[in-house]
Amino acid sequence: MAEQRSLPVPEGLEGERLDAALSRLFGFSRTRAAELIVAGDVLVDGSLAAKSDRVHGGAWLEVTLPPPPVAPMPVAEPIPGMKIVYEDDDIVVVNKPIGVAAHPTTGWTGQTVIGGLLGTGHRVSTSGAAERQGIVHRLDANTTGAMVVAKSEHAYSHLKRAFKERTVEKHYHALVQGHPDPSRGTVDAPIDRHPSGDGRWAVVAGGKDSITHYDTIEAFRAASLLDVKLETGRTHQIRVHMSALHHPCVGDLMYGADPTLSARLGITRQWLHAVSLAFEHPSTGEWITFTTEYPEDLSHALKVLGGES
Question: Where would I find the RNA-binding S4 domain in this sequence (predicted)?
Answer without folding.
Answer: 16-103
